[in-house]
Amino acid sequence: MITFLSAGAGTLPLVAGMRSILHDSEIAVIPGTADALWLPGGHVLREADAVLYLFAGLLNTATWQGIQGDSYATHRFLTAIGLPEALALGDRERAATIARADLLGAGMSLTAATELLAAGIGCGAAVLPVTDVPVQGMVRTGKGALPLALWREHPTAGDPEGFALEHPAPLAATAKACACIRASDAVIIGPCEPVSGIMPLLACTGIAGALASAYVIVISPFSGKHDGSGPEGALLRAEGYPATSESVREIVGTTADLFVQDTRDPAEVAGSLRLDTRMATKNRAESFAWDLMAIIRRASAQKRSW
After folding, report:
1. What is the mean pLDDT of residues 235-260?
2. Using CA atoms, how far apart are residues 90 and 109, in angstroms rounded to an integer?
3. Cβ–Cβ under 8 Å, residues 189 and 29
4. Per DSSP, what are the bridge partners of residue 28?
5. For the segment 132-147, what is each residue's pLDDT rounded down to a tens digit?
6. Checking CA distances to 228, which of 48, 102, 106, 191 falls within 20 to 30 Å?
7. Are 187 and 3 a contacting pair, CB within 8 Å?
8. How far is CA 69 from the centre of its chain?
9. Stretch 169-190: mean pLDDT, rounded?
10. Nearest to 299 by CA among 193, 185, 198
11. Distance CA 15, CA 124 (A)
12. In 10 A of CB 254, how many CB atoms?
């Protein structure tokens, strides 16, 4: 089994590419939950939902979030009556947020609610939120703090000055997520946003210990297209890091058994492997997935020979 730690849209094309090699039942995804957002009547968790929609064949792969062909009648009507929303949700996507809010309100854990939603839409892979503890990423800007989900929707709302996680209890990974990692042939992290994606995942107690027992590949999001000049690069700099692959390597620390950089990445990270990480097309994503599977199978064969 191959497990992905996924936060943000960057990993989803690779997960889609991996589906050309493995059955869905051989893939697990542990999505981040720092993008959680309560809206009137619903609980938004776009990272986790995007994974569910991907495996159910519903995902809008033009944006890597939401449901393909979704309508926005509710969103438009709220605007028309003078109650505009800061986050545009499609009608079917909104139904999932309403269902999750009801399940959580009835006392169900986020993991159990996610499994119920997965079964309901026909998702054949294991999708396990990294934590059941309510958590919200907050981006500090010169205009105030914004929840991560809203900042991603409106990255020009204010220059980022820092990032923090708000949670009412100690942030602990679920037993299911940790067990999934330990049972995996390999764990792939990224290509995720370093601050808003990777950091919240690694902040969960138990994740580091589980990853220590696994073969872990970390993929830098920096390439010719993603050069650190965008909002996430600004967030990295606000946290005191240069917007380069070297910072990603520092953030993951000893977690990575293999660190992968794009062939066009100008940064030089000692010991990294250079691959073409572009996934602008389905064929490119599949090719990159095959490259990674060859590495994983070779590492597995070497382990057995010990």
Report:
1. 94
2. 25
3. no
4. 3, 126
5. 999 999 999 988 899 9
6. 48
7. yes
8. 22
9. 97
10. 185
11. 13
12. 9
pLDDT classification of 303: cutoffs 50, 70, 90: low
Percent of the chain with pLDDT over 90: 83
Neighbours of 298 (CB within 10 A): 10
Strands 136-141, 160-166: pairing kind: antiparallel
Per residue in 76-115, pLDDT (tens digit) is 999 999 999 889 999 999 999 999 999 999 999 999 999 9
Q: Which two tokens stand for residue 9?
A: 């849209």
Give the 3-state secondary structure of residue 216: strand
228: left (phi over 0), alpha (psi -120 to 50) or beta: left
Instruction: Return the CA Rg of the chain.
Output: 19
Domain 2-37+125-305 is found in CATH 3.10.20.30: no
Q: How many residues does the chain have?
A: 306
Mean pLDDT value of segment 279-295: 95
As given in the structure block, the two tokens for residue 298 are 């070779």
Structure tokens at 110: 């986020």
The Cβ of residue 217 has, within 10 Å, a number of other Cβ atoms equal to 22
Domain coordinates in residue numbering, the chain: 2-37+125-305
- Directed axis angle between helix 91-105 and helix 73-80, to 10°? 90
Whether the Cβ atoms of residue 224 and residue 238 lie closer than 8 Å to each other: no
pLDDT for residue 306: 47
* Global pTM exceeds 0.85: yes
Judged against a pLDDT cut of 70, whether residue 67 lies above it is answered with yes
Residue 44 is encoded by which pair of tokens?
A: 């938004």
Q: Tokens 């370093």 — which residue?
A: 194
Alpha helices, H only, the chain: 12-18, 46-56, 73-80, 91-105, 110-121, 148-153, 175-182, 199-202, 207-212, 231-238, 245-252, 282-305
| Residue carrying the six token digits 């981006």 | 139
Please list the helix, strand and coil fractions of the chain in percent, rounded to the nearest 5, in that order: 45, 20, 40
